[in-house]
Amino acid sequence: MTMRVPFAASSVATARQQLKKWMVENGGSRDQVEDGRVVISELVANSIRHAEPLSDGTLLITWVYERRGVRLSVTDGGSPTRPRKLNAPSSALAGRGMAIVESLCLSWWAEQNRSQSTVHAVLAMS
Question: What is the domain range of residue 36?
Fold first, then answer.
């Protein structure tokens, strides 16, 4: 599944809804669907908060089954910093996004080039 969404906060809900529909149609359990919704929300929100849009003003969001599970990916126009897990205290209002992604996923990684950045996360699916 591939979708292009506006580089806007409203795209978090759009991605969450479309992923839920796709995961339910493909046999995802309730827990898997909810974990997927949290992960895609964090990835999209982080792009909007920390990066630039793609040249057409959008984000590219994809998900696909692979051997280990579902790979969720968000591509934006890049950022001067790389995504990383922070050890933010529980009282912090921000900074826990990638720690949440890491706790729910088998793995995550980022790829960057001159014009874009993609963050991938693999969610276990049985």
Answer: 2-124
